[in-house]
Structures are given as C-alpha cells and as structure tokens.
Amino acid sequence: MHKQIKMKIKIFPLTADATAAAATAATAMKQQRKHKMPEICSWLIVAAAAVSASWLTLSRSLVAAQDAHDVDSEMHQHHLDLLHHQQQQQHSDFIIGESEERDHIAHHLAEMQNHEELLEDIREDTVVNVIPEKVFSLEHTLFDLPKFGELLQNVTVPVGREAVLQCVVDNLQTYKIAWLRVDTQTILTIQNHVITKNHRMSITHAEKRAWILRIRDVKESDKGWYMCQINTDPMKSQVGYLDVVVPPDILDYPTSTDMVIREGSNVTLKCAATGSPTPTITWRREGGELIPLPNGAEAIAYNGSFLTIAKVNRLNMGAYLCIASNGIPPTVSKRVMLIVHFPPMIWIQNQLVGAALAQNISLECQSEAYPKSINYWMKNDTIIVPVMLLL
C-alpha cells in the first residue's frame, strides 16, 4: 500500500526547454494512466521536469553571461594595448594631440564601465529569477525505515508454563521480522512462518505492530537470550532474556534417610535439592526442639546442606526436617529420623518397701533404653515371671 504524498510545485515562465520538459511529463502521465502506475510516479515526473527545465535555463543564462564577460575582458585588453601603443607614438612625427587622445580614451573607459555594470545586473537578475527558492516540498517522507516501538522485555516463566516474547515494530512496510535464539544462532521464525522444528514454538501477529513468539510447556533448556531482528541495511535488532524458574525438588540421593547411630558418636545429616534459582536448605526439628550446632551452641534452625552433630546423645534423637526453598512455590521438605542407640538405664523410686504380714505390695522398676529393653525380676538368682509380682 502506497502513502498519499502531497507535493507543492512552484511554476516559473516556461522556456523552450521547459516546454519540452513539460511535454515529456505530460506524456509520462498518460503512460501512468495507461499502465495504472501509482499516482506518486506522475507527480515525481512533473516535479523532475520542472526542476530540469529551470536548471537548464539557469545553466544557459550563466554561460551567456560568462561569454559576455569574456568579450568584455578582450575589449578592455585591446584598449589597454591601444593606449600603450599611442603612448609610444608621442615622440613620433605623427603625434595625435594629447588632449584629444585623452578625451577619447576616457570616453571609451566610461562606456566599458557602463557595460560592466549592465553585465553585473544581468547576472543578478538571472540568478534571482531563474533559480527557484524551493521547487517542491514533500509533506511526508517517502520511505521511513521501520523502528522498534517498544523495548523487548525480559520474561520469567515457571517451568511447564507458556512463555510469551513480544516484539513491537512500527512502519514495517515490506521488511521482514525474524526471531532467533542467540546462544545457538538458530532462526526460529520469519514473518508468520515457523522455521524451527520445535513444535512447542509458534508465532502470532497482533495489532499489526506486535510479533509474538510463544513457547508452550517451557523447559529449563529454553532459558537464554532471544533476538527480534528486522532485515534493514544495516540490520536492526534487540534482544530479551527468557528466564525459566524451577521450584525446588529434594533429591533422594545424596539426601540422608533415617539414620541409626550409637550414643556418643558423631553424625552428619545431608540434604540435596535442585531448582532455579538454586534453593536454600534449612534444618529444623519436627517438634521445635533446639538443634545442636557444630560450635556447641543450639538454635531453632540451621541453614546449610550438611548438619553435623558431635557426640550424639539420646536427647538428640528425633525427626529432623530438611526444607528447600527458592522463592518459587511450592517449598518442599523431607523428614529424616535420627535414631540413637543407647544401653538401658534403670532407676527405682523406692528401694525399700515395707508391709504388714499378709498385706499386698508392689515393687516398681523403671528403665530407659533404645532399642527397648527386656526387663525381668530375679530373687536369689532365680528369674521371677511376670515382671511385676504381687506378694
């Protein structure tokens, strides 16, 4: 589609050359109507004819002025030679009267000065009247190059979602738009055509300005720089970054599973997680108890992939939570059970119990151990069953 272009043409008196140029322009306009050429072509032809005629007239006027100046210079030199010759004849027998000769020369020099002034007037009149101040003006530029209407924005998309990259171009005309993957130098799309074999990519053209690259089911491998390019000379382009974020995921290996350790030993709990951005690891105890730190202090939480407990005791036994987070929901956690083996510990509240004859009594023994201990009573090196004996 061609723009409508308005032109203003200043008309000057036509010379023979201008008349011929106008006739040529008229013939060209007939050809334009016959072959249905764009209206702009006929306007340009008329303008070109007017300009050519004006400049041709100017050129010839200046040549004529220059020729007149050359003739005038020759006449001036001739009279100077004549004056010099007459001065040499002053001592000859045939001397022309000095007063008469001077009057003759002065008269001729005055005529030369008048001729020079007339020639200068002709030059000024030619320049002023032949050269137009402005032959024609265009109210609109014929061919504006395309330009980007907006900056290409960086995009952040969670993995598995759809990424949308938008390139806005004004005044594209007949130029082409292409999308490229910068790191691999891969052409993805040209205009409305998808070049890449990646079936997850598509191109849409909205509002005649926006060229939108869509990537469905985004993968972490899609992360990188993308370029929107216009095939002008020189090429115009802008780039945007697609960041694919991945929620955290705790790896089964090398993350610790439930652990059994003997009391007094050292133990290290491990937690590994993936995600983008890289997740942070936090350790907490399930019941909210304090966590013994490597420096001997205790805290509610500990940040780090490795939690080391020195000289584990039975009080450290319980469930520990490995929590991974990177700002991308959901946050995930894994429960690691720390089991501490320790030998039985027995205590008796009342070591001496008294009772009257024929009265029932109860002997009570408490023990603590892991694994659970087997408790029994003995009397005179003989095992008494059951454990609790009523006498």
TrEMBL record:
Signal peptide: none annotated. It is found in: Cell membrane. GO terms for biological process: synapse organization. InterPro entries: Ig-like_dom, Ig-like_dom_sf, Ig-like_fold, Ig_I-set, Ig_sub, Ig_sub2, Neural/epithelial_adhesion. It comes from the Eukaryota. Residues 146-240, 248-333 form the Ig-like domain. The chain crosses the membrane at residues 40-58. Keywords: Cell membrane, Disulfide bond, Glycoprotein, Immunoglobulin domain, Membrane, Repeat, Signal, Transmembrane, Transmembrane helix. This is Uncharacterized protein, isoform E. It comes from Drosophila mojavensis (Fruit fly).
